[in-house]
Fold:
Amino acid sequence: MTTNPSTPPQAPAVVRTRVELHDALASWTLSGPEPTDRRAVVMTMGALHAGHVRLVQAAREAAGPTGQVVVTIFVNPLQFGAGEDLDRYPRDLEGDVATLASAGADLVFAPTPDVVYPDGDPIVRVSAGRVGEVLEGESRPGHLDGVLTVVLKLMHLTRPDVALFGEKDAQQLLAVRRMVRDLDVDVEVLGVPTVREADGLAMSSRNAYLSDDERASALALSRALRAGAEAADGGAPAVLETASGILNGESGVEVDYLALVDPTTVDPVPADFSGPALLLVAARVGTTRLIDNQAVDLAGQEKTRD
Structure:
């Protein structure tokens, strides 16, 4: 999508069915894209914020000026567990499409569950394996299986050359990369750095649930991660001890997990580990569950994702 600065950006086309999607994708293919053009997809659950906008902008860069950028908006029931916020998850398709008009999206695929799962709950699903059994997988059993199942289906439906995911959901990104590699899916997966509010809070659609007091408490997550990274010279135990101290000192934060892991396997790093690691946190602030992460170099040099 190319825009003239003197004219307002054009809203992306919105399709809701498989047939409409197929026709829209075929139309672009038949229009004779340049050999270097690619189709890039960004998969979202809607309630778009500046973090999503950055993903779409990165997709435009990856696709090329005359490539095709597809954004999917689908609140996937398979990745929500019993008692989670499926029913109250924020939905605003009209507002999302308006947001995407200036971000560089060409096409929005916004299906209903019966379009994605025409036979109801799928009998055959993708398993995240051991990656889906720890951290997020332990706290939310079946969550990553549900994520990978819908990601694979949307890859098949949109047929992208490249798919972009935010690094805030670090374990999800790792699981998608492993699925693509292990199952020989011909899609390049790109991670896009976390976008943060001015106060350091990682952008998330669930931030809208936070009261003013809860938001102030939630800042302990990013503060703990930064402090942990700064303690890297003391090794893995110092990183965890420093971050844990800040989290435990904030009365409004209930920690689900804090872990320092290998960024390619999410296995915990040993106490004497040296090299790149990933500091992950999940916590509840009020009734809202938030996640965040920070890259840490245990050789002593911090690498930030901000």
